[in-house]
Amino acid sequence: MTRPNDLGSLERLLRPLGHELSGELANALLRLKADNEVQAGYDELASKNTEGSLAAEEGAELESLVRANSVLSLLKAEARALLRRRPRAA
């Protein structure tokens, strides 16, 4: 799965993006979530992983989903930070 160093490097890579986000894009990022099909697939793979019955191909798919979620989580953190720094328009 994702290694801690991967996340630290990714966070440093994405941090400057937070300075370029508009309020509109930041809000859009915060609303972004997996659709029902993707979430159901993730849940199934995570269950198989917990049970120890995950095939190698499924493991690669789960890792890909975890990495994508990590990227999205970092982008959302930057979006939240940006919105806290900027006063809301009246």
Folded structure, characterized:
By secondary structure, this protein is mainly α. Helices cover 80% and strands 0% of the residues. The chain has one domain (4-85). The protein is built from four helices and no strands. The N and C termini lie far apart (44 Å).
Beta-strand percentage range: under 5%
Q: Helix count, per DSSP?
A: 4
Helix and strand sequence: HHHH
Choose one word for the global shape.
elongated
> Which stretches of 5+ consecutive residues score pLDDT under 50?
none
Largest sheet: none
Radius of gyration over all CA atoms, rounded: 16 Å
Descriptive labels:
90 residues; mainly alpha; elongated; 4 helices
Produce a short descriptive summary.
This protein is an all-alpha fold and 90 residues long. It contains four helices and no strands.
Note the topology.
Layout (H helix, E strand, L loop, with lengths): L3 H17 L2 H9 L4 H16 L4 H30 L5
Helix pairs in contact: 1-4, 2-4, 3-4
